[in-house]
Model the fold of this input.
Amino acid sequence: MSHLRVRALRKSYGANVVVNGIDLDLARGECFGLLGPNGAGKTTTLRLCLGLTEPDSGEISVLDVPVPQEARRARARIGVVPQMDNLDPDFTIRENLQVYGRYFDLSAAEVNARIPALLEFAGLANRGDDNLRALSGGMKRRLTLARALINDPDLIFLDEPTTGLDPQARHLIWQRLRQLLAQGKTIFLTTHFMDEAERLCSRLAVMDHGRMIASGTPRELVERHIEPQVVEVFGDGAGAWAKEQGTRLAERCETAGETVFCYVHDAAALIDDLAARAELRYVHRPANLEDVFLRLTGRDLRD
Amino acid sequence: MTRHWSLPSFSLRCLHVWRRNLLVWKKLALASMIGNLADPMLYMLGFGYGLGRMMPDAFGGTTYIAFLAAGTVCSSTMMSASFEAMYSGFSRMHVQKTWEAIMNAPLDLDDVVLGEAVWAASKSLLSGLAVLLVAAALGLCASSLALWVIPVILITGLAFGSLGLIVTALSPSYDFFVYYMTLAITPMMLMSGVFFPADQLPPAVHLATALLPLSHAVDLVRPLMSGQVPAQWALHLCVLAAYAIIGFYLALALTRRRLLK
Done:
């Protein structure tokens, strides 16, 4: 059974086409990541899948329920972690979960029975009666994740789940998401952190200007869209070096600010040349998802 | 565009929205009651007794305090519903994004807006009822007919809750509500017979007050408290119901336009 099926989805605001004919299929138990720069259409895609905005055309079915026609029924089996925390600041941690459980028509007894495990999962055991105002950003995020699980959903949507968190907090969230995958949950996440996508997602799609411009496993994307080796060169004269030597020694050179990115299959000649130049520093590394992302969506700022 | 104007579709889950607000209110109940109730009470007692002593016979046989008590039941209902739908509603919609969180669960915006309108009416019921009780304790309710004031308060609260939600749907920030208070609520309070009989106004203005929901509430509540069946009570009720229903529909359509982009 397909947990999410999207066909030829389109949505525009006036002349601005935000989602321009996308198809998606999520199988049970997979973690799918939607990557894209700001304004690529990720959040709109997610809102469409939740039935919070109506498409201009196309079909969406979530857990075999047509959306937006029966969005309420679909959302009963979905969990959502929004981009911005929208917990209830007037409630304690426990009350946040209790009140949210009611929205799913769960009885107080059912919700209360689930709360200890959820608090444990969120690393907030014994803190159920704490006021929300006392929580750090990371704790709030974990509580938001726990809240999204109150109805024991089959499919979980996360919109940039770790934006604004410190590394410790991000790693803890990732660990929890892996636990959920191990339990057989299906995850759909949007992110613009490549390490997040690489660590969690079994399948990725890169979205830009409302279109899916590439998709596959993280490894496939790197193999298909970019040379395997990257040499980053910086220092005074890096730009001049790139014009004279870089373009000759590398298959592709890109300059971003003070840094020259050289993409190659074999970096040996390039490294030899650089080693002789004391004024230039360099880093040699394998190509990663971020390189693919920048290759596909460009280096221009998007905001 | 047309979708924003489609007929509402509610689920029983709208009750959970109401219960959520109740739980928050319970936590702040004491402070909220004092704030909500002290103000109208002070005006009613201060003006009613102070000013009333200077004009003993001007109000068709009743005392000024009895006259003012009926008006205050209505105006405090209006104020309470409006404030809840605007300031508190805006906090939940725009600042805390509570509505967004609710809509990620199996509730639609229609459920949320209905829950909010009924909640605003419930809070205003408390305010109106408190004034009514004080009036009864002071012997200002002539007969058990005054019990009919309770449903009138509820429908008045629903009308002003819905109107408040329209303003909330259009509001870019809290500052916007001041316009509605100054341009709509305050003039309405002065023109609807709360403090003095509306027929004292220039004839053209008096005629125009027939359009204001508050004047219909006053025309129902004042006779009920003085022990009479209001003239044309069905008409007054219908006008209030129309404000509640049409107001709600407008509020819903405008909120859909704002949030379901």
About this structure: Residues 68 and 195 of chain B are 6 Å apart (CA to CA).
